[in-house]
Design brief:
Layout: E1 2-3, E2 9-11, E3 18-21, E4 32-36, E5 41-48, E6 51-59, H1 62-74, E7 79-80, H2 81-90, H3 95-111, H4 114-133, E8 137-142, E9 146-151
Antiparallel strand pairs: 1-2, 2-3, 3-4, 4-5, 5-6, 7-9, 8-9
Length: 154
């Protein structure tokens, strides 16, 4: 398994639509998450008797995928608000969209519309959390910072 630079992703084999996440020690040895970005499915896999075994699987909407992917990418660290905002509203996360999102959120804070700007993201995170909890993964809010994934166990 090759670990991609600066990411939580693990490259098992070249595939543009399936991303693998080792979760850097949060999962038991041999377990991993596989995210099919085309179908919007997150699969929790383990090895039992040298065979891959599906522990759980959930399907996510495009909006749910837009918040789930940055959370997975940033684990074990938190995912800042501006990264979630960039992914949710722009569909991509890069230095330019993150900087623009940070400016928009700073302006929203200054003008008192922060809650209004973040409400759609919070609503989608809430639906995403319901699905990830079924696989032993929780999404926790960090006050005035962002969100982080926490593994509850199988």
């Amino acid at each position: 398994m090759d670990k991609e630079r600066g990411s939580n992703r693990v490259s098992l084999k070249r595939s543009d639509n399936i991303l693998h996440f080792s979760m850097q020690g949060s999962l038991p040895e041999g377990d991993l998450l596989a995210l099919n970005t085309t179908l919007g499915t997150l699969s929790y896999l383990t090895m039992q008797d040298n065979l891959p075994t599906l522990i759980g699987q959930q399907q996510f909407t495009n909006n749910e995928m837009s918040v789930l992917l940055p959370l997975l990418d940033n684990h074990p660290y938190y995912c800042p608000y501006e990264v979630l905002y960039a992914s949710f509203y722009n569909g991509s996360v890069n230095d330019k969209t993150i900087a623009l999102s940070r400016e928009q959120l700073d302006e929203a804070m200054a003008t008192g519309i922060w809650d209004q700007q973040m409400r759609p993201i919070r609503n989608v995170l809430s639906r995403t959390r319901l699905k990830t909890r079924m696989m032993g993964i929780d999404i926790l809010a960090i006050l005035e910072t962002g969100y982080i994934l926490r593994f509850l166990g199988r």
